[in-house]
């Protein structure tokens, strides 16, 4: 099959992003849904793909529901992406490569394929993940921390604070906030940006040509607080899925 059409699915903890690809090099329109049922409702409007590819951090039940839906719609198998020891010029640092999140792996492959240089690959979703890759494609390991909303939830679980922060009111030019709700927002966002900047400074000391990629739903909220130069690629995981599928 010279140029198969593919449905690519990135199932994160909070959202499901998907796109229909008719060429190896370019993603179609990226759709974001909060749940699987919303995505399934949209798929009958598509023409039947030749292949379906999935990168998922969700549980086994999600996989079963997705497989059943795809089989019912098109009688196709779902190709599930798993992290490997080496792919597309990148070598995984983990002693047990399959335990690295497949979304992180796909994002690293896409970023390295695009740049071929020292990288930080940052995914700002439910969790914050930061992975370092050197110019030769060696994954150096990563960092994992609660994302913006998990940090805010921790405040409510561990204290008696009951105000509701509105992240849309955040002002990246102001560090100190005039209310408790705004203070929680500023604290969570600036904690994350400080960690990203520290990771970036660490890598730039080793390789001044290091480039930082930002992916995930909260990338836009963070970008203006960062001191390090960065590229925003909201669909980096889907790009990685497309590359993995094309290489098979």
Automatic annotation (TrEMBL):
* SUPFAM superfamilies, A to Z: Actin-like ATPase domain (SSF53067)
Cofactor(s) recorded in Swiss-Prot or TrEMBL = K(+)
Q: Which UniProt keywords apply?
A: ATP-binding, Coenzyme A biosynthesis, Cytoplasm, Kinase, Nucleotide-binding, Potassium, Transferase
Report the leader peptide range. Answer: none
Compartments it resides in: Cytoplasm
> Which CDD domains does UniProt cross-reference here?
ASKHA_NBD_PanK-III
Give the chief site where it resides. cytoplasm
Biological process (GO), any one? coenzyme A biosynthetic process
Could you cite one Gene Ontology molecular function of this protein?
pantothenate kinase activity
Q: Which GO terms describe its cellular component?
A: cytoplasm
Q: State the family named in the UniProt similarity comment for this chain.
A: Belongs to the type III pantothenate kinase family.
Assembly and oligomerization: Homodimer.
State the name under which the record lists this protein: Type III pantothenate kinase
Q: Which organism is it from?
A: hydrothermal vent metagenome
